[in-house]
Every structure is written in C-alpha cells, then in structure tokens.
Amino acid sequence: MKTKYIFLTGGVLSSVGKGVTAAALGRLLKERDFKIAIQKLDPYINVDPGTMSPYQHGEVFVLDDGAETDLDLGHYERFIDNSLNQVCNVTTGQVYEEVITKERRGDYLGGTIQVIPHITNEIKRRIGLVAKTTGAEIVLIEVGGTVGDIESLPFLESLRQMRSDVGRKNSFYIHVTWLPHIGATGELKTKPTQHSVRELRSIGIAPDMIIARSDYPVDEEIEDKIALFCDVDKHAVVPMVTTDILYQIPLTLEKASVGDFITKRMELEIRKKPVWDEWESMVQNMRQEKPSLKVAIVGKYVELHDAYMSVKEALHHAGNANGVDIEIAWIHSAELEKEGKLQQLEEVQGIIVPGGFGERGIEGKIAAIKFARENHIPYLGLCLGMQLMVVEFARHVLDDEQPNSTEFDPSTPHPVIDLMPDQRDITDMGGTMRLGLYPCQLQKNTRAADAYQQDLVKERHRHRFEFNNAYRDILKNEGMLYSGLSPEGRLVEIAELETHPFMIGTQFHPEFLSRPNRPHPLFKAFIEAILEKDGMK
Ligand code: GLN
To answer: Rounded to the nearest whole angstrom, what is the distance from the C-alpha of residue 491 to the centroid of ligand 1?
Structure first.
C-alpha cells in the first residue's frame, strides 16, 4: 500500500491539544489494524528541545534511540503504543543544519539555495523518512504552532506540495481550531475559525476536516455554520469539548465517526472493525471515584506541570491499575530549603524527586529525600532523584555534610556522583549526554527485581553524571543495594535501601515507558508500597 499522510495544523490559538488529538487519531487508525507513526514538525530554530529550559518548552521526551524530543511525542507513544524514532521530531534547526552542511560541502555548487525548493525539499525528505524507518502505512504529521506564524510557512508550503506529490486520496488535512466562548451572551464564536481557515487557504491548503476545540458543548447550528463558511463536509466538522481524561479523546472521535470518515475518504481497505472494549473500561476505571493518595513531586519547575508530563502520566497509570486516584502535591524544591517548610511533606504518602539539572533547589530535594528515608515514606527517585538519594545516604552514613555530586560541588571530598570518564572532555551541550535505551540487569532478591519480574530490562536515559564506583562498597555495607546494573556490572542503574519499605532510585527515566494500559512496574510497585504501608492493601 502507498503511504498515506494525515496532516494536522493548528488555528486560532496554540495549546488547544493538537498533540493529543494527533495521538488519539493515531489510536483510531491503530484500532483498525494499520501501522501508524506520528511526526511532529517544530518551527523553532533549536536543533532539538534538549537545550531548552522546561519553562519554555515543558518536558524533553526521550526516545529509544536517544532523540531528545517535544513532549507531544510522549502523548503519541502513550496513545499508539509504538516506539517512535528520531525522524519523528523535525525542527527548523535540523532542516537548515542539513541544507547548510550540504551547501558548504559543495553539493549544490553553482546554485542559489532558497527556501523553495531546497528547504521545502529537505522537509519533505524528512517526512518521507518516517515511513521508511518505521514501516508505518499511515503517517500523521503535526505542525507545531498556529497558522499565521512566520516560522511555520516553509512547513505549510511543504505540506501543500505533498498533496500533488502523493495524490489526493493519500493525503488528508485536518485543521484544529478553538471556539471562544463569550460569557455575556453565552455564545460560542466561529469567526476566528473562519479567519484561520481563510489564512490556511491563502497558503494553498484546503482542510478536509475541522476539529473545533471548545470548553463548552457545541450545538449543531455551530457545526453547520463552520461547514458552510469553511467549505468542509458537514460530517467533517468535529467538535471536541475539553475533557479531564485525555484517554477519552479517541472514544469521542470514534463516536463522531472520524475514523470511518478518514478511512473512506482515503480509500483505505477495511481490515478490522475497531474494538474499544478494553480502552473503554480503562477510561471508565479512570473516571470512577476511588480512594485517593497524595504523592509529592519535588522539583524546581513545578509551576509548570508540563515540565513533568510523563511523571504525572506514569503516576496516574499506576494509580489507576491499583484502584486509587493520585493527587499530586507539587512542591517547589527551593521552598523546602526555607525554615519550617518541610512540614508540607507530612501530608503526603509518597515522594518523588524527578529528573533535573543545575544547582537551584538541590538542598531542598535532599531534605525531602532525608525526610522520606527517616520517616519510612515510599520514595521513587528518577535520574537526578536517584543521584541525590545516593548523596543523602552518603551524608548520613559518613556523618558528613560534604558528599555531593560534582555537578553541584566540583571540589567535594566525597564525589559519590561524578562525571563518566567519556563525558569529561565534552564541551558541547546539545545531544551529548548518555541518551536513549540501555540494558539493565536486575539483581535477585531486590525490590526492583520483584517489581519487574524480569532479569533484564531496557530503559531510557538522559544524564551526564553517574554513581561513583569508589563508593560502592562503603554504601553497600550500610544497606544500599544495587538492584540494577549495566550487564557488564560497571554502572549502577538502580539503587535501593534494604531497610526501608520502598526507597528506590533509577539512573534512567522509567516514566517514558509507562502506558495507560501498561503502567511501568516501578511506578506500580511504588503505589503498591504506599497502599501496603497505609494498610489499604
Ligand atoms: N543532572 C543530572 C545528570 O546530568 C541528572 C539528569 C536528569 O535527571 N535527567 O546526570
């Protein structure tokens, strides 16, 4: 079958959930037995989001192959449950880097290099790589930002050209817009959608479907109006009302016959009728009232929950599997450094210190870890959260405040966390960490091995620093277990405390592999440990 392309553009506003919509559409087609991949085209000039502040961009999502990508890739993987690869996130920076490298090499000798066709051809080449590298039959492509942004023009022009390149039945354009609500009259307005579609048409793209996001129910009159003014089929105007449970969206789109409309219009064979029973009962389960647990996420970007998107999702997946709701207490690590602020932790039943970089708030995180250790509160440390768990334990057993990671104190006499030798001479910041999937051998009779029920697992990494092996024996003698090691035994991948009900730190990021219907074993075990400790199990 020839590769089919579904393009998603955004109109009116950003942040209306275009990424989740793309992810949900992917699920709709996967349920029909097609091989799916999703690609995000990001118009910014950074080569990848790896060097951006989480305040700017939210979480950096890491793929198996080590690509540092937009957080929407996390939604894609959670919904379609296929591992994506580095070609699935393209930025303007990557496109220009490639074209300029070729120009310097002399590949275009004699030619003038222009946005059309050189940049647009490179964009189209990268779109083409998705099917080639993943084997996908249908590729969904989401363009970041909104129509009208200067930066996204080359991407939109490439999308426009794709229709004649691949043909009408192999391309489908969806415009995701927003219907503002006017409080005074209680009305939803379609005008911004009309304007946005007009803008899209002026670029040469006529949408085949409009997904209209709204905080309020959309009546038929509004749908008719959008169909008429924007010149789309009435069945192709799909209202999508805001929901608190993201995983509801595929069901909503299915009910609106979006899957059938697209398959018919793209002349896709009917392979399988979608069966939603399992997904539906998962969503129903999420919706049901359940006892609630309070878990703290102690980080320095907590004002922006998107910075911890995958951790948040992984917690909810694990809660759902254990029949409890998870209420997240977002605690700023720098706050915990202030007098009397640690008391906040008395109200939580579990503590997570997620990944992070830089010195701000480090002592607050260490204080939270100490609190978890001393009060026997279940603790899960993710990457930096593992490194600081080691620092805190070393300070305790050596009865000395100086042990540290050399990331925060380069001259500490006890560098329990230190740079890996192969990281020492690297000065570039972009894409130079230990990134992507690495194997981890679990050690028998540990909590981590119990949780996984496997000997060897592969997990995703993103860090420069590592456990310093010079301290292995010292800390082991005091009760630290190395429950996961790299297969040759050189690197500590998981550490845990023997005499604590649940104190585990992972050098990798388990949150990236959690799925709504397949919670990550360590998150699941973490929630179980809380339930056991509180006599709820
Ligand atoms: N800053 C630490 C390192 O580079 C931890 C990174 C992380 O938490 N992802 O090793």
So the answer is: 15
